[in-house]
Specification:
It contains 3 helices and 6 strands. The radius of gyration is 20 Å and the shape is globular. With 161 residues, it is an alpha+beta fold. Helices cover 24% and strands 25% of the residues.
C-alpha cells in the first residue's frame, strides 16, 4: 500500500504551478472539483489519465465523509518538479480515511482503493484543527527535450549543384 501519514518534503526542480478552489461539500461540489481539475490540468498540458479519477474520489470522500454543514472543502493542485500533488482539505479532522475491502456487491467503499491504485503515493496530513488534508501524488512523465535546429529530421548536409 502507498499510504503515508506524514507530509513528504517536496524537492523543487523547475516551475511550481498551483491552483486552489473552495467547493461546497455536496455531490455537485465533488463533480465540479473533477471538472475544474480536468480543465486546469489540460491548461497546464498535463496527462489526464489518472489525476481526474483521484480528484473525483478524494472530493467525493470530502463531500460524503468530511461534510460539515456550512463549511466548504478545498481542492488544491500543485505541480512541483515532475510531480502533481492533489490535496483535498475538509473540516472533519476527527474522521481519518481508511481503506477497506468492501463486499463484492457493495455500492461504495472503493474510493481509497482506487486512489491507492492510481496514485504513486497518498496520505493524510492533520490540522490545523478542525481540518485534515488527504493528498495524493502522481509522478509525471518527463517532457520531451526540444529539438534544436531541425536535428533528427532527415535534413541533408548540403545541396548538389
Amino acid at each position: 500500500m502507498n499510504r503515508e501519514i506524514a507530509d513528504p518534503e517536496a524537492q523543487l526542480a523547475g516551475p511550481v504551478r498551483n491552483s486552489s478552489v473552495l467547493l461546497s461539500p455536496t455531490p455537485r461540489g465533488a463533480r465540479l472539483a473533477r471538472l475544474l481539475a480536468t480543465e486546469q490540468l489540460r491548461a497546464w498540458g498535463l496527462p489526464l489519465d489518472r489525476a481526474p479519477h483521484v480528484v473525483a474520489e478524494l472530493a467525493a470522500n470530502a463531500a460524503t465523509h468530511g461534510r460539515v454543514p456550512g463549511r466548504d472543502f478545498r481542492l488544491t493542485l500543485y505541480v512541483v518538479g515532475g510531480t502533481l500533488r492533489i490535496e483535498v482539505t475538509d473540516t472533519r479532522g476527527d474522521r481519518l480515511p481508511e481503506t477497506r475491502d468492501p463486499a463484492g456487491d457493495a455500492e461504495g467503499g472503493r474510493g481509497l482503493v482506487l486512489v491507492d491504485a492510481l496514485a504513486d503515493r497518498w496520505g493524510v496530513t492533520p490540522g490545523p484543527y478542525p481540518r485534515k488534508t488527504v493528498w495524493a501524488e502522481i509522478h509525471l512523465p518527463p517532457e520531451p527535450a526540444p529539438s534544436c535546429c531541425g536535428a533528427g529530421r532527415g535534413l541533408s548536409q548540403g545541396t548538389r549543384g
